[in-house]
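cron nightly-structures :: item 1 of 1
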Amino acid sequence: MKHLFLLIAFIILVACGAEQPVAVVCDTAACQSAEFMTLGDPNAPITLIEYTDYQCPFCERHALETFPLIKSELIDTGRIRYQLRDFPIDALHPLAYRQHAAARCVGAAGGTEAYWTAHDLFFAEKVRFAVADLAALDDVILDAFAAADLPNVSDCLTSGQFAADVQADFALGLAAEVDATPTFEIDGYTFSGAQPFRVFVQLVDAAENGQLADAFEPTPAPAVVAPTPAAIEPRPNTALGDPNAPVTIIEYSDFQCPFCQRHALETFPQMQQMIDDGRLYYVYKDYPIAALHPLAHRLHEAALCVRDGLGTAAFWQTHDLFFVNAETFAVEDVMALGEVISAELTNANLWTPDVQSCIDERATSAEVAANIREGELLGITDTPTFFVQGYPVVGAQPFTAFVYAVELAEQGDLLELFQQQQGDGE
């Protein structure tokens, strides 16, 4: 069996040589999920716990793509018992706690089936619940529940009946050192991220065979040929920091990619200090994937038009705007997108006659296309993809991964890390 460490292929684990976790036994009443939040045979030999956030895009991916397979193949067959725990991360999703409380209200009133119907609804219609204030969210929740024939939870929400229970789950997560969602715990061992179904199958197999500890034990990387760093020309007019900084990171991104959005909103702001301190030169390049996001190319063109009309600082304002308001730009045709771009840039004081002319004439289309060709030659297939001193890192990695990579690059030890990473591949 290939170890979980290799399946996740996660740079910070490779770098730090993750220690074998210690199984935590928690059998008090506080550690038990509400009955309606639990699926499967209570006598199943294995318990899998998920810490989730109803506004987390990775939790959404797990809920819609992987969880249905877990239910049919592992829960319904009696192999595992599945418990859900609330872990709304207030710093990222300040209103998510309300959805967790609402789901508990429904579960208390309507039982397990009602609870999991609400769970599925929150993820399947995630955009619907992306509102700006609590009153609006309550209205959307009540309307959605009514349309789904779920119990009316107005009084329950108003009274805050389950607010303390949500916080209690969150505290359990903190005690288990949960710091991201989704995070899973299987018989005391934790792992995080929207993992593919095969990871869960292999872990359950390992638990059934008494080999779970082995699945979390990293194995040494075999000797491999040292990778050659890519030679990439930076693009100064979409860059931040000192071009003479000791470390350069080049990001290839797609304005309609949810993983790029997560990086832009959660991780990149934390990297700003390294940029301001002169340690990091950060370059942004366009890589809209037309097969997934056929209109994203137009957003990249518009951002470059703002850059050409108003400068680099305005480009980064547009970058932030496109990710913060990503749902606003999720329209189905070019004309509608053009209207939204015009309105949003106008509201942000980023719309000028020159910017409008540039967008209308698609004056930056060739530059975006050139970036895409460059990325294709580099072998990029997913976004975001980063090149740290020319070495590739794929995916929305946590801030700690970038800190570690920058520190290694400053010390001249980055090659060793990527030798290890390459050795962990298929």
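cron nightly-structures :: done
The first strand starts at residue 38 and ends at 39.
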